[in-house]
Design brief:
Layout: H1 2-14, H2 21-51, H3 55-59, H4 65-95, H5 106-131, H6 138-150, H7 161-167, H8 171-185, H9 190-221
Helix pairs in contact: 1-2, 1-4, 2-4, 2-5, 2-6, 2-8, 5-6, 5-8, 5-9, 8-9
């Protein structure tokens, strides 16, 4: 909410110089907040079990990996729904920004940003399980390292060439490039959506395998006990 208020006020100031700034800047901000929140909810759901010293109790039950994962994702969807509704309502009431102006492109925009956030969260959880509580700060800081490469508030072309070679492998880059393209042309090139969806699906599957492997190994080696010491 604070980010929305700050950047919203900036768009009010800059609107006279760049009339389309409200649409692409606030649109990008809302999508980025969705990535942040979806990643954070997945990571913090595991940390909640650690902080409450319930992790060993949880995994001493017949709980399966699939049940644990579905539980995290369902809770994430519930919280994200509340956050998105609040953000959309605030942006509309304060800045007359209607998120539905993106039409049916909202579906791939939201889908990729949410799943990409989940992917980051699951990957971070794998690191926490493997390396212990020294890694828990990643739940809040890892997303900061991803933002400069995602081209949230600027086009891919402004990045140095060697950074562009990294950014093109992030699904978020194609989403934000597509959003800016929509603002100026009214449509999103299919290649942006295909690349974003393909990369996101690939990384999500890889993160699931990594998390499952790490969880199984942690239970076998007794590494979970380090998280509650």
């Amino acid at each position: 909410m604070v980010s929305l208020l700050v950047w919203g006020l900036f768009t009010v100031y800059a609107r006279e110089k760049l009339p389309s700034i409200t649409l692409w800047l606030l649109g990008a901000l809302v999508l980025w907040i969705i990535i942040q929140r979806s990643q954070n909810e997945i990571s913090v759901s595991l940390m909640d079990e650690v902080w409450s010293e319930n992790l060993l109790n949880l995994f001493s039950t017949p709980l399966t990996f699939g049940e644990f994962l579905v539980g995290m994702l369902v809770m994430s969807i519930v919280k994200l729904t509340v956050a998105i509704v609040m953000l959309a309502a605030t942006a509309y009431l304060l800045y007359a920004f209607n998120i539905f102006v993106f039409g049916y492109y909202l579906v791939p925009f939201f889908a990729v940003t949410i799943v990409f956030g989940w992917t980051l969260g699951i990957f971070i959880n794998s690191l926490i399980l493997r390396f212990g509580r020294d890694s828990e700060a990643l739940a809040w800081t890892a997303i900061v390292a991803v933002q400069p490469f995602s081209c949230v508030f600027y086009p891919l072309s402004v990045l140095p060439k060697f950074i562009q070679s990294v950014a093109v492998f992030l699904p978020s880059t194609y989403i934000f490039e597509g959003l800016r393209f929509f603002v100026y042309t009214g449509y999103v090139p299919g290649i942006y959506l295909v690349m974003a969806g393909s990369l996101c699906a690939l990384y999500f599957i890889v993160s699931l395998f990594l998390f499952r492997h790490t969880l199984v190994r942690s239970r076998e080696l007794g590494l979970l006990s380090r998280l509650v010491d």
